[in-house]
Amino acid sequence: MSIGGSDLDRAITQLRACRPIPENQVRELCYKARELLIEEGNVVGVDAPVTICGDIHGQFHDLMELFRVGGDVPDTNYLFMGDFVDRGFYSLESFLLLLCLKVRYPDRITLIRGNHESRQITTVYGFYDECLRKYGSANVWRYCCEVFDYLALGALVTGAATSLTPTDGPIAENINIDIPDVDCDIEIETLNAQGEIMYRYARNSDSQSSAASQANSNPASSSPIAPPTPSLAGVTGTGATSSANGSTRNDTGAILCVHGGLSPLIDTIDKIRLLDRKQEVPHEGAMCDLLWSDPDEIDGWGLSPRGAGFLFGADIVKCFNHKNDLSLIARAHQLVMEGFKEMFESTIVTVWSAPNYCYRCGNVAAILELGEDGSNGGFVRRSNGDRGGGGGGWVLGSNAGPNGTGENRRLSSVLGDSMQRTRDGPGRRYRVFEAAPQDSRGMPAKKPVADYFL
Amino acid sequence: MMSSLNGAPLDTHAPGHEDTSITKNGFKITTRKLPILKAGPIEEMTTKLGIAPPEMIFGDNFVRIEHAASGWRIEFNAFDALDRVDKTGDSMLKVSYSKEWQQNRQKQFEDIKEVVKPFDWSYSTDYKGSTAESPAFQSTDTPIPLALLKRPDPIQFFDDVMLYEDELADNGIAMLSCKIRVMPARLLLLTRFFMRLDDVLFRIRDTRVFVEFATGEVIREYTAREEKYEVVRKVLAGTKEDVLALMRDPNRLAEYIPVVGKTLEKVVLK
């Protein structure tokens, strides 16, 4: 049988109910997915608006919560930065659902590879065992691993707005700091799962602030469920919102999304494009670094004390961003209690989307929404001459960037004098959410069962 | 409610509980289970410890046994356990593919040599609990009376408290957790450090504390087990069981990993 059209919709419905689809459908789905992914470059071009998500780790019910909070596919354009599988109990359903959505709505969901999308790691951390348990054979695991080899290594988001259109949602309770006026140039906004404002930061202002509790007289806040997409409508660039948004401020650079981080072998995005990615994640080399490395409070590059893997400091990020005309690197890979963590003067952010990780950490999760810069109509892509001295233009979807290395060298020497950000970061809206209610995911009770251990 | 630097909330609704306790014959047993630490407290702990804490750090959790009459107490918490982790890098392990990785790297990046903040990142600790200075434990030959603990006496209080856990960047697992069960006449506490560095090493370090309420007798037994990964794997391969599952289960693994160190101590509280 073939999986397509209504079959695909049926599979999506079944997976949304957290029920695995038959093995022959998985084979068909994986085949279709591979045909689609093979056409993608190592670095996928993505237009804002987009919602960027971090690790999922088989926490299916929390993925459903993510879609409730962030909006459904295809209404919301999603970018998942890998680590779909392992750890959680529903890696299979989570990954297959994302894959079905990818095949059904290829332009509305982007999947890039995490270090867990690998044969070796999945045999140790749960996905292999889960497939064996649910199907009685390793076939499904094998089909999925073949898809892993075709996943892109990164994504490049362009056309993001510098400022957010402020959410007109109510202000969260128990917030006792004033929030900046909505007329300000809003750079960061943090919302809870109900769409209530927890925090708002105006660009170039020194004071960070949160919503005031006394302002919480809005009756809408009593509604436990936020409408998933309407609150985003302001950002998605109608003519009206883009002018209210201040359409002159459209000079943010692109945003590179990658699972782990940078590599000393990679100084331009074009070098990522040249890698041969269609293989198992190697133990060393640029591809390995992109999926494994971590930012750290160090100068330059460092070696992990574990004896393998790189750490990179603020100077590396700032130099890379400058050279490649980026305003931000979004990555996942590391658990952060608050769901997201900006580092190095907001030149890099870690996004983590698995709440109550491993069902016991008690952390919240976050997704990052980037609005659309209304002035480019969401269609016209950036060109080289967009801003003097940027020099990091590229043609999306092409593996050969137009900028010569000579210019890059010049830029990095200029950068050496002052490690300043030349690009304003995109407006960033973080939606923070907690784990799906316990009773909805059929999990064992939290209370430990007494046993006669010795 | 305060807001952290990046605007995320500092408090979250999370699993766990505030203190729960039970008192038996003047012994008060208390446990606390809260979520992992947030960014602020993690930074504070990093400064105090001088090393980066594990990825999952349950810094608020503890298990405590107190005897008010004598002023004796023993507590198990993550900070004190981590304070006993080697912070110099002298006993640092390497992941299995380190050599291969290093060799390839050295050719290309001779300038990147510095190992960032070397320390024992496996978080191996010989922590036996934090105790009051007096009355102090004395070395003894009296073993924990296993026969009494094998009886199915009713368990009146039970808890299983995680102190820390780290996935060793997907090279295995290191975890320190503490279980306690209180029966009408006695209690048993087990704090276990379990570490599996894939293709390199297994470690299990158990601290058991036994209290006989009527006599005030407290016995503490520390057992360290260690074996090379490959040796254990070969033995397990002969069991016809799921080897990967066994390797995740320290309860089952213990019998395959030889004891490399043991101490037995006792104190009698009046």
From TrEMBL, chain A:
Q: Which domain of life is it from?
A: Eukaryota
**One Pfam family this sequence matches:** Metallophos
The chain positions of domain Serine/threonine specific protein phosphatases read 112-117
EC numbers for this chain: 3.1.3.16
Q: Which reaction does it catalyse?
A: O-phospho-L-threonyl-[protein] + H2O = L-threonyl-[protein] + phosphate
Keywords noted in UniProt = Hydrolase, Manganese, Metal-binding
Gene3D superfamilies (UniProt xref): 3.60.21.10
* CDD domains registered for this protein in UniProt: MPP_PP2A_PP4_PP6
Region Disordered, residue ranges? 208-247, 390-411
Keyword Cell wall biogenesis/degradation appears in the UniProt entry: no
Q: Where is the composition biased (Low complexity)?
A: 208-224
Please give the SUPFAM superfamilies that the UniProt record associates with this protein.
Metallo-dependent phosphatases
By sequence similarity, the record places it as follows: Belongs to the PPP phosphatase family.
Kindly provide the name given to this protein in its UniProt entry: Serine/threonine-protein phosphatase
- Species of origin reads Trematosphaeria pertusa
* Upper taxonomic lineage: Eukaryota, Fungi, Dikarya, Ascomycota, Pezizomycotina
TrEMBL record, chain B:
Q: Which PANTHER family match?
A: GAF/PUTATIVE CYTOSKELETAL PROTEIN (PTHR21021), TIP41-LIKE PROTEIN (PTHR21021:SF16)
BP terms from Gene Ontology: TOR signaling
Name the segments for region: Disordered.
1-25
Native source species: Trematosphaeria pertusa
Q: Which InterPro entries match?
A: Phosphatase_reg/MetRdx, TIP41-like
> The organism sits in which domain of life?
Eukaryota
Please give the GO cellular component terms listed in this UniProt entry. Answer: cytosol
Q: Can you tell me which family this protein belongs to?
A: Belongs to the TIP41 family.
Organism lineage reads as: Eukaryota, Fungi, Dikarya, Ascomycota, Pezizomycotina
Q: Kindly provide the name given to this protein in its UniProt entry.
A: TIP41-domain-containing protein
